[in-house]
Amino acid sequence: MEEMEYVEWYCKHLLEVATIDGQEYVFNDLSLTNDDLAESNAKKLGIKKNVFEYELDDNYNNVAPKLNYDALWKLSLYLYQYIYLYPLAVENLPYIDEYMKLVIYAEENENDINALQFHSPKAKNSLVIDNKKLINILMKSIWNEAKTILNNEDYESFDFENVTLKPAKDVVNKTTLDWAFVQELSLFFISYMGGKKLPSSIKNVIITILKVFNNEFFDKRDSALNVRYTKMKYDATKGRIIANQYFIHEHQIFKGNPLGYTYVRNPESLKIRRKFKEMLDNYRKST
Question: For the chain, what are the domain ranges?
Fold first, then answer.
């Protein structure tokens, strides 16, 4: 078998094709992956091919079908690049969220704020206000202003130009990415083996690959690996693993072409807006 056979099989049988505005787009063509970049990223993350080969050869040398370690390493490397290092355009925290943070802080610490400090890079000294009456007036004005300038539309707004590109592993929950990685390897083996279910030995292979790429400690017991696979699948079925939890759109199209990244919500922004909305709802109920 040639080294690229697994990747070629994946691209032939498992491409994700979407029809948008009458045109077909392919989003997971692993053959387009930059091989040097994938190898370089693996090296930076401490993912080692010799460890990969040792763990598979030590435990699964006799599984059927017989594994091509070079081909499986390449497929796993490309999938890792596609899933964990996929660039996400993360919305920078906009002013409205900074304002919500200020309102939340003012509300939660209404009786404990004993000073306000203003700082300018041009000024030699900061301005400190410690008069309690003035502090109360300023805090009240912040809260009153919030009730007039914030509306429901603000909770859904997204500044598509105010973003920072980050790899998915720095934004999305690790468990979500791990499950996506396990799913893609599972789909490959099911397709390649021509079956509907995976034997326990292949499930163990998949979890072993996951552990190698995550640089995890190894429990040599096959039962432990199988239990982990089963638990991940069960958690996904029960909604405990949420796929694409920050995505606005699963795929982005710009001027007729797929973008090389996906827009996502800022996780901190989601928390701030959820907390502020709860606080505002409670205020409205009390008035």
Answer: 5-90+163-264, 95-156
